[in-house]
Structures are given as structure tokens and as C-alpha cells.
Design goal:
Helix content: 25-40%
Low-confidence stretches: 18-29
Structural class: alpha+beta
Radius of gyration: 22 Å
Shape: elongated
CATH architecture of the largest domain: 2-Layer Sandwich
Mean pLDDT: 86
Strand order of the largest sheet: 1-2-3-4
Strand content: 35-45%
Order of helices and strands: HHEEEEHEEEEH
CATH class of the largest domain: Alpha Beta
Amino acid sequence: MKTIQRLALFILCAATICSTRTNAQTILQVPQEPKTKIEAFEAQTGVVIICGFSKIGSINTARAGNVSVQSKVFLEASTGKREYGMTIEVKKPGEVETESTSYIDYDEIDSLLKGIDYISKVERSATKLDYFQADYHTKGDFKISTFSTDTGQTMVAVSSGAYPEVRVFFAEAKLADLRALVANAKARLDAIQ
């Protein structure tokens, strides 16, 4: 009889844990309101949306992950209205690869380029404390940071998404490559407007 009671208790506990886990997963998947114009434009319902895009390029690091940039234009077929922008996708390798895509409106790209320029120049002398971190955020949950390490190096962190946030790290030298991809994405959009 005790074996049956223990088995019943085990099954009840397992069912409770599974139920709690399912509820937690459901809560985590609540859709968010669009934060950018191109996200909102793409999310329209009841209309035909045509998306044109160009793959600009990517930064690959074998262990750290991948950051890829695309220029995008969205067209509402019935009205001819357009929205221009870009996406930056961050992929992190692992047992289960994670990825997130951030949307950046056209009118935010110049600010992003200036932000990259600024944080690329920040040095340890920017603070009287032992370490520094300089961050730039976009409306669409793209974040780029430079920071100092114990070894005296400056590293770069790039992330996309708010929850869950997908983040990859790479050497400071790759920051110029990322800036070039963003500038090329903007140039591609300028050419078609």
C-alpha cells in the first residue's frame, strides 16, 4: 500500500511540475507590441505586405556566434506606402542555438552609426574606476557595448532581444566590420529611395 501511495505522490508532484513549467512557458511567450515603425508595418493584418531585402553581410566567430545585417523595405500593396529599415540578427551557438532579430528604422541608422563611432573610442581612462562599459541601445532591442577586461583588452558585446536576450562577444577589431555592415545597409536603402 505504501508503494502505491508513494507512486501516487510522485505522479502528483510530476504533474504539478509539468503544469507549472507549461504555464511558465506560456507566460514567457506573450507577444510584445512593435517597438519600431518597420515592425509595426510588417505586423499589419488584412493587407498584403511585400518585403524586399538585401543580405548585406555577417560577422562570424567560430565560438562566439554570428551577427548578420539586412536592408529591408516593406510595401503595402494596396496603398503603395513604404517603410525602410534594417534588421540585425544575433545567433549564439550552443547545445541549442539561440537567435533574435532586432528591427531598426531608417531614421535611426545615423544615430546607430554615431553610437558605434563613440563607443569605439571609449578607453579605460573614461572612468576613475577599474573598468568601463559603454552601451548604445536602439528602440528595437539591439544593444552594442564596448567594455574593458581583466587583461586590459577592450571587447565588444552585441545583443538582440529583451527577454530572452541573445548576446555574442568578439574582439574590438570586429567593431569596424559591424560599423561597415550598418553603413552598407544604409547606403543600399539610400540607393532605392
